């Protein structure tokens, strides 16, 4: 990891020392990405463990989208030390549904075999949309469309799930519900997750580890082991610490922080 290892000391239950990790599903070593004379990613090192939930924070232009595109396989990385699983899926801020296909066919896109509809139906039931199989995308609410996008990603059982600000366009209550849904799906399927977000509260509420990207390098990280729903006692101080790495801007307006109660994991 680049720069500081900013492990939080804010709460005794929130932080543990480094322990041996299983073989990572993602590994980048000294990764560089340039566009003409502009260096967007500069010598970045990153590992993501199986089943780990990471949130990536960074100001506009810090390289978040470039990194996500690399992990998604959308950009070429010849000659670089990059290891990513072949099984991966992306959920974008825009659900990107095909308006001329009903919901279940959007979820089944690219699936092979005679059971594609059955698999799509099962995935839609998981996200609470089993009653909307034959609906047209233009009849869906924003939250419903994002749930379809989640179903489309998870039906493939990816080892790596990339979430590119998928809740940014949703109202606060819908975001809260989507947080709950994403966590329940993550616990069931256990992919490694990289969530790109501008929202510090969202990062703290959802992630095992929060990374801060600046000028193409990871400049800080915080590992959080306190159960989700029990992080309020140290959240304000951690939020201030993360914002200091982001330049002090508050990106959390309108978000319902830490709404999810759960048993200790």
Q: Counting H and I runs of at least 4 residues, what is the number of helices?
A: 7
List low-pLDDT spans.
Answer: 1-17, 249-265
Strand order of the largest sheet: 5-6-7-3-8-9
* Helix/strand structural class: alpha/beta
Kindly report the average pLDDT value. Answer: 82
General form: globular
Q: What is the CATH fold-level name of the domain at 26-98 and 158-245?
A: Rossmann fold
Oligomer: single chain
The fraction of residues in strands falls at: 15-25%
CATH superfamily of the domain at 26-98 and 158-245: P-loop containing nucleotide triphosphate hydrolases
Compute the separation of the termini in Å.
26 Å
Give me the strand/helix succession: EEEHEEHHHEHEHEEH
Helix content: 25-40%
Radius of gyration: 18 Å
The count of β-strands is: 9
The appropriate CATH architecture of the domain at 26-98 and 158-245 is 3-Layer(aba) Sandwich
Look at the structure and give the CATH class of the domain at 26-98 and 158-245: Alpha Beta
Sheet with most strands: 6 strands, mixed
């Amino acid at each position: 990891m680049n720069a500081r290892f900013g492990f939080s000391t804010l709460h005794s239950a929130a932080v543990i020392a480094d322990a041996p990790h299983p073989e990572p599903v993602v590994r980048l070593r000294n990764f560089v990405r340039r566009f003409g004379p502009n260096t967007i990613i500069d010598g970045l090192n990153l590992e993501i463990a199986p089943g780990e939930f990471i949130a990536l924070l960074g100001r506009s232009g810090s390289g978040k989208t470039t990194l996500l595109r690399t992990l998604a396989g959308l950009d070429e990385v010849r000659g670089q030390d990059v290891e990513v699983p072949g099984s991966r899926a992306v959920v974008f801020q825009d659900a990107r549904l095909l308006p001329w296909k009903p919901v279940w066919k959007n979820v089944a896109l690219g699936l092979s075999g005679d059971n594609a509809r059955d698999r799509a139906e099962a995935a839609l039931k998981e996200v609470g949309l089993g009653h909307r199989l034959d609906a047209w995308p233009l009849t869906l609410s924003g939250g419903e469309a994002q749930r379809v996008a989640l179903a489309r990603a998870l039906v493939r059982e990816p080892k790596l799930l990339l979430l590119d600000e998928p809740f940014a366009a949703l109202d606060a209550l819908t975001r809260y519900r989507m947080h709950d849904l994403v966590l329940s799906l993550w616990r069931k399927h256990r992919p490694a997750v990289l969530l790109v977000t501008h929202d510090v509260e969202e990062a703290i509420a959802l992630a095992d580890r929060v990374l801060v990207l600046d000028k193409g390098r990871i400049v800080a990280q915080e590992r959080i082991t306190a159960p989700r729903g029990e992080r309020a006692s140290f959240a304000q101080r951690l939020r201030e610490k993360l914002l200091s790495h982001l330049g002090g801007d508050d990106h959390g307006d309108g978000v319902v922080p830490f709404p999810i109660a759960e048993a200790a994991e």
